[in-house]
């Protein structure tokens, strides 16, 4: 735990203090709030700033702090047992601090209502665009870039985690509705930004084959700095090729083009999360268990009620196929997504289902008629 004196000696805090020199009283209030946030979440100032998407990062920190406060784990800068009920000053201190470090904070950015990022909840690649991405990276002749895109587009990890991951893929076999299926299991996938691990699963058979070819026990990237830059640049080229980045919009903040251009890897994470929601019938709890501490951030940042969610929530390509072809497939559960893949991408046999219920009905009838 850091005290106030130590906190003030940090170069990032001194830079912040200089930026707020016209109002030292206000800075003092914000300083105390940020120190409480750091001590409560057990994050250093450097860890707060280690991000390729500062607005999402602030949301994560804010929600993590609120959750720990709700659990009674707040660490105050002075002796008190008070539990805050109003988090406005904590939110403002985060915005002030990040702003002082050169990050752009939209004027109407709000932690609770997401007013600052109205369109980013819909950042998403369709199934066809995702497949085009696999083709694009596969054609480069560099396996690690293909593996990076394939894995990130499947397990919705941050780029920092992707750079550190050493291949510990385990291929598991199971059965769904009498159909033999396979999926990938990654035990304790470490997310450095969260200082925790998550168990990840690779459901897509093509992605599973791609990652299975990667050397076990080794990272995907040999040179993280160079390979990271190459990965980002190729993502931008790919996004431009499918119309996600428009040259006349890429410098206009709060447009989707600007977001894809400035946060290419986080766009993959964003899209992969929404893809997982489509595959699981919108099961926020299951998705959160593979990458977040709670459902809140998934609901606030990665999901937005739209026509697909409202009108297609009961569709499942396997057990309840839609009458019209959807732009991206939807399923009621991950199990049915896997069954559909290993059933030749065909829906569940309605004939078999009908015969099953006829048999059950006949058995029940025989009990009471005899």
Short description:
The protein is built from 18 helices and 3 strands. The chain has helices spanning 4-8, 11-19, 24-41, 45-49, 54-70, 88-100, 127-138, 143-155, 159-164, 205-212, 224-241, 256-262, 264-279, 284-288, 295-301, 307-312, 334-341, 350-369, and strands at 169-176, 179-191, 196-202. The N and C termini lie far apart (76 Å).
Secondary-structure map:
Blueprint (H helix, E strand, L loop, with lengths): L3 H5 L2 H9 L4 H18 L3 H5 L4 H17 L17 H13 L26 H12 L4 H13 L3 H6 L4 E8 L2 E13 L4 E7 L2 H8 L11 H18 L14 H7 L1 H16 L4 H5 L6 H7 L5 H6 L21 H8 L8 H20 L1
Antiparallel strand pairs: 1-2, 2-3
Helix pairs in contact: 3-6, 7-8, 8-10, 8-13, 12-13
Structure description:
The structure is a single chain. By secondary structure, the protein is mainly alpha-helical. Helices cover 52% and strands 8% of the residues. The chain has helices spanning 4-8, 11-19, 24-41, 45-49, 54-70, 88-100, 127-138, 143-155, 159-164, 205-212, 224-241, 256-262, 264-279, 284-288, 295-301, 307-312, 334-341, 350-369; strands at 169-176, 179-191, 196-202. The chain has a 3-stranded antiparallel beta sheet. A hairpin with a 2-residue loop joins strand 1 and strand 2. Helix 3 packs across helix 6, helix 8 (143-155) crosses helix 10 (205-212) and helix 8 (143-155) packs across helix 13 (264-279). The termini are far apart.
What tags apply to this protein structure?
single chain, 370 residues, mainly alpha, 3-stranded antiparallel β-sheet, 18 helices, globular
- Tally of individual helices: 18
Measured by DSSP, the beta-strand proportion falls in 5-15%
Shape, please? globular
Number of strands: 3
User: Radius of gyration, Cα only, in angstroms?
Assistant: 24 Å
Low-pLDDT runs:
113-118
Distance between the termini: 76 Å
Q: Helix/strand-derived class?
A: mainly alpha
Spatial order of the strands forming the largest sheet: 1-2-3
Mean pLDDT: 88
| Main β sheet profile | 3 strands, antiparallel
Share in helix: 40-55%
């Amino acid at each position: 735990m850091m005290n106030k004196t130590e906190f003030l000696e940090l170069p990032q805090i001194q830079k912040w203090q200089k930026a707020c020199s016209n109002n030292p009283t206000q800075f003092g209030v914000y300083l105390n709030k940020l120190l409480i946030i750091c001590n409560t979440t057990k994050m250093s100032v450097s860890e707060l700033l280690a991000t390729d998407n500062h607005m999402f990062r602030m949301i994560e920190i804010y929600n993590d702090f609120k959750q720990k406060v709700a659990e009674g784990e707040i660490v105050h800068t002075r002796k008190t047992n008070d539990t805050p009920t109003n988090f406005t000053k904590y939110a403002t201190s985060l915005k002030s601090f990040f702003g002082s470090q050169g990050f752009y904070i939209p004027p109407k950015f709000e932690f609770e209502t997401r007013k600052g990022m109205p369109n980013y909840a819909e950042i998403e690649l369709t199934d066809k665009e995702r497949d085009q991405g696999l083709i694009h990276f596969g054609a480069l002749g560099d396996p690690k870039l293909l593996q990076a895109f394939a894995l990130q587009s499947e397990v919705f990890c941050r780029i920092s985690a992707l750079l550190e991951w050493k291949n510990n893929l385990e291929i598991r076999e199971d059965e769904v509705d009498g159909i033999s299926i396979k999926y990938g299991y990654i035990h304790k996938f470490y997310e450095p930004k969260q200082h925790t691990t998550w168990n990840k699963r690779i459901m897509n058979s093509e992605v599973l084959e791609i990652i299975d070819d990667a050397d076990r026990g080794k990272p995907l990237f040999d040179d993280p700095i160079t390979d990271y830059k190459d990965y980002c640049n190729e993502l931008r080229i790919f996004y431009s090729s499918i119309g996600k980045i428009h040259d006349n919009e890429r410098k206009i903040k709060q447009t989707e083009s600007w977001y894809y251009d400035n946060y290419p890897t986080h766009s993959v994470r964003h899209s992969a999360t929404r893809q997982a929601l489509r595959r699981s019938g919108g099961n926020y709890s299951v998705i959160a268990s593979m990458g977040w501490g709670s459902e809140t951030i998934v609901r606030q940042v990665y999901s937005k009620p739209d026509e697909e969610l409202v009108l297609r929530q009961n569709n499942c390509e396997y057990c309840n196929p839609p009458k019209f072809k959807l732009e991206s497939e939807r399923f009621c559960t991950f199990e049915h997504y896997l069954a559909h893949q290993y059933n030749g991408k065909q829906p569940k046999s309605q004939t078999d289902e009908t015969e099953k219920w006829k048999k059950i009905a006949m058995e029940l009838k025989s009990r009471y008629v005899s």
